[in-house]
Amino acid sequence: MNKKMAMIITLCFCVIGMSACGKAAVEGQNVASHMVQASEVAETTQVTEKTSSCETPPKFLVWSKKTYYLKETHSTAEPMVHYGYMKCENGSYTQTISDTAEFNVYSAGPSSDLLYYGEWGGKRGYALYSLGVPGIPVNAAATVKSVKIEYANDRKANLNNEEYILIRGSILVSPSYVTDVLPFLVPGKGIWWNNEQKTLSFAFTDKDDYIKERFLIKIGEKKFKDNNKIFPIRQEAILKNGRVYLPLRGIAEAYGNVVKFTKSNGLVTISIEQ
Question: Taking the model in full, what pTM does it have?
Answer without folding.
Answer: 0.56
